[in-house]
Amino acid sequence: MVDFKVVLSDPKSGRSYKIDAAGAVAGAFVGKRIGEAIDGNALGLAGYTVEITGGTDKTGIPARRDLPGSGRRRLLLSESTGFHPTYDGERRRKSVRGGEISQDFVQVNAIVKTYGEKSLQDYFGPKEAAE
């Protein structure tokens, strides 16, 4: 079955939370596109709505919202998702994935769009202090 690491970012607090999604929870993401909203109940977050913002596959290749499907492609990129040039005008051919979430993804990034009654701190607990 499919296993994902979902990195859920909270724009209000600036914190992010990691959720290990397996089975039916991960199945809620398969077939969705970057930019689509998902009900938070699939992640165990009652009343929340989350939006998919990106993801990577097992080799770290990023997904791009503007590409159809979920396959890999090698594109000639200027500054955008998947490539950040070191000098003006630089372009480079890089591998990127389409914007549809598939079983090949390992990490899915998402942000909270609608908040529920309980805070995310109540679901995930406080973060440990850095040593």
List the main descriptive attributes of the protein structure presented here.
131 residues; mainly beta; 5-stranded mixed sheet; two-stranded antiparallel ribbon; 2 helices; 37% strand
Structure description:
One of its GO terms (cellular component) is ribonucleoprotein complex. InterPro entries: Ribosomal_eS6, Ribosomal_eS6_arc. This is Small ribosomal subunit protein eS6. Helix content is 7%, strand content 37%. It starts with a strand and ends in a 7-residue tail after the last helix. The protein has one domain. The strands form two sheets. A five-stranded mixed beta sheet has the order 2-1-7-4-3. It has a two-stranded antiparallel ribbon with strand order 5-6. By secondary structure, the chain is mostly beta strands. It contains two helices and seven strands. The longest helix has 5 residues.
Tell me the layout of helices and strands.
Layout: E1 3-9, E2 16-22, H1 24-27, E3 37-39, E4 49-57, E5 72-77, E6 92-97, E7 105-114, H2 120-124
Q: What structural class do helix, strand and pairing data support?
A: mainly beta
Low-confidence stretches: none
pLDDT averaged over residues: 90
- Strand percentage lies at 35-45%
Instruction: Kindly give the count of domains.
Output: 1
**SS summary, helix count:** 2
Q: Biggest β-sheet, characterized?
A: 5 strands, mixed
- Computed CA radius of gyration, to the nearest angstrom: 16 Å
Instruction: Assign an overall shape.
Output: globular
Q: What pattern of helices and strands is seen along the backbone? A: EEHEEEEEH
Helix fraction bin: under 10%
Distance between the termini: 37 Å
Spatial order of the strands forming the largest sheet: 2-1-7-4-3
